[in-house]
Amino acid sequence: MNISSQRGFKGIDERALLANGIERAVEMRNLYITPAGALKKRPSTVAEFSFDSPVDGLLACSLFGKSIVAVASGGHLYIADADDSTPFVQVGDIGSGECLLFCFGGRLYIKTKSYYGRYDGETVSEVEGYIPTVATSCAPDGSGTLLEQVNLICTKRRQLFSCDGQSVLYRLAERGIESLVSVRLDGVDYEGRYAFDPANDAVSFELPPAEGLNNLEIIYKMKDSESDRARILDCTDLMLFGGNSDGRAFLWGNAGYPNYRFHSDLANGVPSVEYFPVNGFTVIGSDAITCIVQQYDRQLIFTERAAYYSYCELKTDALGNVVSSFPVFSLNGSKGCLIATSGCVIDNRPVTLCDDGLNLWESTSVINEKNATCFSSPVCESIANYDPSDAHLLDFQSRRELWFISRGLAVIYNYGINAFYIYDGFGGTHYDTFGDRLYYSSGSGVYSFSYSDSELCTSDCIWKSGSLLHSHESGRCDVVSIEADVFIQGELDVSFEISDGVNSRLRRIRLNESDPCFRRISFRPSLKRTLPFSITVRINGGGQVSIHGMTVKTKEKERSSRYGLL
Prior knowledge:
elongated; mainly beta; Jelly Rolls; six-stranded mixed sheet; 4 domains; ten-stranded antiparallel sheet
């Protein structure tokens, strides 16, 4: 008698076509592995809300002292309180089209290709952009000290003059100015008479402004430049990265500037995502950037076939100002990230998709060196069928699960117990996780998934072993029995099928337990003289079930010299 007893399943391994045990499956759907090693039926997804138009953006976060879910749909912004399951409430109008939502400085920012706005918990308003001081300590002829770069998302500029008490004509720093916005002397609106001279880009005063140091402020407006603003608004991906204590937003994914990384800067010494300097960019290689992630104090920047790293470096400019720069260095010339994604890090180790599968980027003993190691071989077939246009990587941190989603399939790596499993029915366009819940959108609907939900998946749950080799000398055996220790609650059907590819036996069991309980299910298949065989378990219905152990007993079938049979 040969007995295979398993008291701790280890997920799916699509390579295990021939096996001596049943700890790993070659096919597994809608079942997950618990920390104790049991097979358990996954919960169902929950429909949270259906909008009138397709969802353009989604974000789940903690903001305004509570947990919220923000959704962009049909040119409107909707907010729901995630803690008390309140319905979504429309809070303002935004631009239509694909939308990027992110939090910064206690506000929610909304970016589409035609609109950049913010929500402060009360109202939605369009971001005008920080007005930079382009020059300071200027003489009436316009000469002075250059200070801040112009802002790509704002056409206004500020210039400070030190009046001499005699001049009535003050030339501005730029040419082609459209109009004046304001004139202030000693911090208050100038009350005297003045006029803008567009031919000379100057302001003429009827009486000389009083003498002072940087006492005259002139704000002027340049002609709108859609191409400048589009450098930022056409970016599709964003990450927040702290250089020392200064937070900045880094953007990429602009089809017109595919290998550019743009970043925000300090506005009057304060971190701001409303100031994007004209020179606040880095050109990285020649290929499009697909992903940027943070690892400790480093940025890892990926194209499809290469990887780079960057960090914050403090420098002193020609004027003696200490400024932050973000130099870029080569990291790997053969591996990168094949899909455009916002990046993913598990246990401080970046994850990317490469030609050989999912890779972990781990530090070596050499500073600034990292090895990219494939860890997804057990699910290589499922990952190989991904669609780059709808592939997503995300970290469900509260469950210690890495999700790779494409073509409606979620390939999940539980890095807490080192096990893979697969769910179906997860086709979506936007994903985010917050706390113990995963949110995603599909069409005009928003859905959530949580292991704490009581509603269970009604899709087929499948677990299939590899072909079992029980080390009988003759190569054939009789399958005597299969026993499974299960925990059940509710009503469901469980079927066990034993097959060697030629012959098979099937046993269906109807279970209905109103109170949760443990049961041992036994099946005597009477499968004789079988070759290596596989076991398939299917579970249907709305009840809960978890399989804590399985035992397979076989009996060697000796050679028969009389009949010439094995």
